[in-house]
C-alpha cells in the first residue's frame, strides 16, 4: 500500500516513486531489499516537547530573535506587538494620500450603518458610533492587515442583540441590558486574545466555509426581515427572529399597523441605494457612488422629514443621539453576580463569529494584494481592541466586508485609513449628532437591507453544490437553522454538521485505485483519468487520509 497522499501530491509522489524505483533497480534487473531504520530513541519529555512545538509553533516564531543583541530583541518584540512600529518607518505622504481618501470614504459609509447596527443590537444609536471610534484606533496600532475596516457589523449585531434580549428586556431594564452588552464585549475580546496568545486559532477552522456561507445567508435574510418593523412603520412587532413569526407579525399589522409615509420613504431610498450599488458593481471606478449613497440618503431623508414634519404623521424618527465621545465604562462590566456567566457565554459566541469573519476578510484582501497576515497576531489585535472597547462604551467590533471592500477599492495603503475614519466619527460625535434627530428609522432599515443583501453569496453556494454535496448539506443546514429557528441554533447546526463531516472523513477516508498514464511514470485516480490503466498483477491504492485507530479497520476492509 503506498503512503497516504492528497490529490495535489499525486505527481510528486509518483515521481519520487519512479526515481526511487530507478535507483533501486540494478543492472541485472533485480531489486535488492533495503533495511528500514528506526528513528532515534527520544526521552518522553523530548517527544512531548516536539509534539507541542509541531502543533502550536510550527512556524518557529522565535527564530528572528536568535543571536540578536538585547536591544534588538526588545525592538523586535515591540514590532511584533505593534506592527505600526515596523511599517510606520517607511510611511510616506503618497501612502497617506491614499489612506486619507479611503478613510473619508469608509467614514461616509460607516456613520449611517453604525446607527442602524446599534439598533439591531438593541442598543442606543450612539453606541454604534462609539464602536467605530476607539476599536479602529487600537487595531491600527496592533493589526497586520492593510485593508480591513473595523467597526460594528450586521451579523454580530444581530447575534449579540438576540442573545442579550434572551436574558434582559432592553425596554424594561435599559441600563442592565447595556451593562451586559459591555460584559459580553469584554469576554469576546478575552476569548479572541486568548486564542491568539495560546496559538489556538485553528479552532475557528472547525467551522467550515460551506457552513459559514449558509449561516451568513440565513443571517442576512433574518436581518432584512427584522428591518420590516422600521421599513413598514409597525409599532407592535414580534421579538422573535424566525421567518414564520416575523411574517405572521407583518401580516397581522397589514390593516392598521403599516404607515404609508414610512413605506414611501423606505422604498424610495432602498431603490436609490440598490441602483447606486448596481452602478458601482458595473463600473469599478464608480465605487464611491455606493459608498456615499447611505450618507446622502440620511441627509436628504432627514431634511425631508424636518421640513414636512412627517414625524407628526406616524413616521418614527431617531429623536436623540447623545453628543460627545465615548464615556468610560469599565465600572459597568459585570465581574460578579449571575450576569457574569451570561456575559461570558454570549461573549464567547459573539467573539468567535467576529473572529471568523475578520480573519476571512483579512486573508481575502491579503491574497489580492499578495502579502501575508499573521492569524495569531490578528486575534490578539482584535481581542485587545474589544477589551479596550468594552471599557469605553463600545460593543463587539470586527472587520466589515462591505467597508473593507470599499476601503480596498478606494486605494488604501495601510491601517491609517482606520485612523482617518475614526477621526471623522469622533468629529461626528462631537459636532453633528444633534442633526440626526429627525432621521427616520425607515432610512436606517433601508441602509441595513441594502448592506446585508451582499451577504447572500449564491454563486459560492452553487459551486459548493457542484463540488461537494455533503458540504452543501452543511450550508443548507446552517441556512435553514437560522431563518426557521434562531441565529444561535443556526450557528449550532453549522458547527455540528462541520464536526460531523470531519469525523466522517477521518473514520471513512476515501480510497481510490491508481493507474498508470500511458508512456509516463505518473499514476492517477482511474475514475478521474479514463486513460489511466491498471498495472497487471499489482493493485495500487491511495488512502486520502492518515491512518488512525478510528479508520484502520475500514481501510483494511476496503
Automatic annotation (TrEMBL):
Keyword Metal-binding: no
Example GO molecular function: secondary active sulfate transmembrane transporter activity
Lineage of the species this protein comes from: Eukaryota, Viridiplantae, Streptophyta, Embryophyta, Tracheophyta
InterPro entries (alphabetical): S04_transporter_CS, SLC26A/SulP_dom, SLC26A/SulP_fam, STAS_dom, STAS_dom_sf
Domain STAS: 528-558
Keywords of the record: Membrane, Transmembrane, Transmembrane helix
TM annotation in the entry: 148-165, 177-198, 210-228, 258-279, 286-307, 344-366, 378-398, 418-436, 443-465, 477-500
Organism: Oryza meyeriana var. granulata
Pfam families: Sulfate_transp (PF00916)
Name of this protein: STAS domain-containing protein
Gene Ontology terms: cellular component: membrane
Gene3D superfamilies registered for this protein in UniProt: STAS domain
Membrane topology according to the record: Multi-pass membrane protein
Domain of life where this protein originates: Eukaryota
Protein's cellular compartments: Membrane
Broad class of where this protein is predominantly found: membrane
Amino acid at each position: 500500500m503506498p503512503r497516504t497522499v492528497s490529490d495535489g501530491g499525486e505527481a510528486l509522489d509518483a515521481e519520487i516513486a519512479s526515481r526511487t524505483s530507478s535507483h533501486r533497480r540494478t543492472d541485472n534487473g533485480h531489486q535488492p531489499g533495503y533495511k528500514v531504520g528506526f528513528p532515534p530513541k527520544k526521552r518522553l519529555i523530548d517527544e512531548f516537547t516536539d509534539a507541542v512545538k509541531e502543533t502550536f509553533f510550527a512556524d518557529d516564531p522565535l527564530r528572528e530573535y536568535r543571536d540578536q543583541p538585547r536591544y534588538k530583541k526588545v525592538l523586535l518584540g515591540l514590532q511584533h506587538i505593534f506592527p505600526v512600529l515596523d511599517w510606520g518607518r517607511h510611511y510616506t505622504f503618497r501612502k497617506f494620500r491614499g489612506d486619507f481618501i479611503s478613510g473619508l470614504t469608509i467614514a461616509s459609509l460607516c456613520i449611517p450603518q453604525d446607527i442602524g447596527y446599534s439598533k439591531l443590537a438593541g442598543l442606543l444609536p450612539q453606541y454604534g458610533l462609539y464602536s467605530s471610534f476607539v476599536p479602529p484606533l487600537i487595531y491600527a496600532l496592533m493589526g497586520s492587515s492593510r485593508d480591513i475596516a473595523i467597526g460594528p457589523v450586521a451579523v454580530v449585531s444581530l447575534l449579540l442583540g438576540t442573545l442579550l434580549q434572551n436574558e434582559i428586556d432592553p425596554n424594561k431594564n435599559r441600563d442592565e441590558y447595556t451593562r451586559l452588552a459591555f460584559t459580553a464585549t469584554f469576554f469576546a475580546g478575552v476569548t479572541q486574545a486568548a486564542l491568539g496568545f495560546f496559538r489556538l486559532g485553528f479552532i475557528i477552522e472547525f467551522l467550515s466555509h460551506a457552513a459559514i456561507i449558509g449561516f451568513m445567508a440565513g443571517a442576512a435574510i433574518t436581518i432584512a426581515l427584522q428591518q420590516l418593523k422600521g421599513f413598514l412603520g409597525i409599532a407592535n412587532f414580534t421579538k422573535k427572529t424566525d421567518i414564520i413569526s416575523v411574517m405572521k407579525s407583518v401580516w397581522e399589522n397589514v390593516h392598521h399597523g403599516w404607515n404609508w409615509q414610512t413605506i414611501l420613504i423606505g422604498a424610495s431610498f432602498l431603490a436609490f441605494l440598490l441602483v447606486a450599488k448596481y452602478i458601482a458593481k458595473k463600473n469599478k471606478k464608480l465605487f464611491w457612488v455606493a459608498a456615499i449613497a447611505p450618507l446622502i440618503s440620511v441627509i436628504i431623508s432627514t431634511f425631508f422629514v424636518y421640513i414636512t414634519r412627517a414625524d407628526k404623521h406616524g413616521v418614527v424618527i431617531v429623536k436623540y443621539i447623545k453628543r460627545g465621545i465615548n464615556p468610560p465604562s469599565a465600572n459597568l462590566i459585570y465581574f460578579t453576580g449571575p450576569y457574569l456567566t451570561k456575559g461570558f457565554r454570549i461573549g464567547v459566541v459573539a467573539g468567535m463569529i467576529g473572529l471568523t469573519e475578520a480573519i476571512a476578510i483579512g486573508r481575502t484582501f491579503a491574497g489580492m494584494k499578495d502579502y501575508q497576515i499573521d492569524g495569531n497576531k490578528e486575534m490578539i489585535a482584535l481581542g485587545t481592541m474589544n477589551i479596550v472597547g468594552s471599557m469605553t462604551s463600545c460593543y463587539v467590533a470586527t472587520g466589515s466586508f462591505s467597508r473593507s471592500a470599499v476601503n480596498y477599492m478606494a486605494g488604501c495603503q495601510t491601517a491609517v485609513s482606520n485612523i482617518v475614519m475614526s477621526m471623522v466619527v469622533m468629529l461626528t460625535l462631537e459636532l453633528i449628532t444633534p442633526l440626526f434627530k429627525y432621521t427616520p428609522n425607515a432610512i436606517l432599515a433601508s441602509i441595513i437591507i441594502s448592506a446585508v443583501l451582499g451577504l447572500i453569496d449564491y454563486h459560492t453556494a452553487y459551486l459548493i453544490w457542484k463540488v461537494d454535496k455533503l458540504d452543501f448539506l452543511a450550508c443548507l443546514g446552517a441556512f435553514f437553522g437560522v431563518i426557521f429557528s434562531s441565529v444561535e441554533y443556526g450557528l449550532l447546526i453549522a458547527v455540528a454538521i462541520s464536526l460531523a463531516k470531519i469525523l466522517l472523513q477521518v473514520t471513512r477516508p476515501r480510497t481510490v485505485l491508481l493507474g498508470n498514464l500511458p508512456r509516463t511514470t505518473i499514476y492517477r485516480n482511474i475514475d478521474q483519468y479514463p486513460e489511466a490503466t491498471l498495472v497487471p498483477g499489482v493493485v495500487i491504492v491511495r488512502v486520502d487520509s492518515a491512518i488512525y485507530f478510528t479508520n484502520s479497520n475500514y481501510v483494511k476492509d476496503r
